[in-house]
UniProtKB/TrEMBL annotation:
Pathway: Cofactor biosynthesis; pyridoxal 5'-phosphate biosynthesis. This is Pyridoxal 5'-phosphate synthase subunit PdxT. It comes from the Archaea. GO terms for cellular component: cytosol; glutaminase complex. The lineage of its organism: Archaea, Methanobacteriati, Methanobacteriota, Stenosarchaea group, Halobacteria. Pfam families: SNO. Keywords: Glutamine amidotransferase, Hydrolase, Lyase, Pyridoxal phosphate, Transferase. One of its GO terms (molecular function) is glutaminase activity. The gene is pdxT.
Length: 205
């Protein structure tokens, strides 16, 4: 049986996330079809979801106006995996520190937008990530910092600040794991997260 993935396609690196999901699924021996999400009604059929970067104010506004926001909350409440990257992390958080962002509140962290931007707009760093045996080449672009971590696990830090976290079925990263050929973060979030349920996989077992 094939899995169904969704990539929130309001903005951002949609094709790159879709390609990374396909590579990670193949590496874990799964067939998958990836759908772009611009309207409500698709998320309920998805086994796993990615929410790309972009501009968090725009993404959160459109998720709410299109009725996609409650569907993503229900997806997470059902224990299905969500990978939220950069602006996606900001939108998924419980506090974006900016009134223009209406958070989904599915990832128990507070963030500061553009926190790494004052030092350098973008950079790549070799990250030690819990669960990965070799460093991950992480690309940061006007990245948010994770300020406080509530009921969530820190998977990686850079410059003494958390940059990857897991809260049950949700993994959030400050960086862009879709921008390198290395799909291990997608693998970790979707196929190696014991706190997340991928229903089609369970039905098969
Ligand atoms: N600076 C963006 C924001 O605050 C995030 C940047 C990104 O997703 N690359 O929404």
């Amino acid at each position: 049986m094939s899995l169904t993935a969704g990539v929130v396609a309001v903005q951002g690196d949609v094709e790159e996330h879709a390609a990374a999901i396909e590579r990670a699924a193949a590496a874990h021996g799964h067939e998958i079809s990836v759908h772009e999400i611009r309207d409500s009604g698709i998320v309920p059929d998805c086994d796993l979801l990615a929410m790309p970067g972009g501009e968090s104010t725009t993404i959160s506004r459109l998720l709410h106006s299109e009725g996609i926001a409650p569907e993503i909350r229900a997806h997470v409440a059902a224990g299905k995996p969500l990978l939220a990257t950069c602006a996606g992390l900001i939108v998924a958080s419980s506090d974006a520190g900016d009134d223009r962002v209406e958070e989904l509140g599915v990832l128990d962290v507070s963030v500061e937008r553009n926190a790494f931007g004052r030092q350098k707009d973008s950079f790549e760093a070799p990250l030690e990530v819990a669960g990965l045996d070799k460093p991950y080449p992480a690309v940061f672009i006007r990245a948010p910092a994770i300020e406080t971590v509530g009921d969530a696990d820190v998977l990686a830090s850079w410059d003494d600040r958390p940059v990857a976290v897991r809260d049950g079925p949700v993994v959030g990263t400050s960086f862009h794991p879709e921008l390198t050929a290395d799909s291990r973060i997608h693998g970790l979030a979707f196929f190696e997260n014991e706190a997340a349920a991928v229903p089609s996989l369970e039905e098969r077992n």
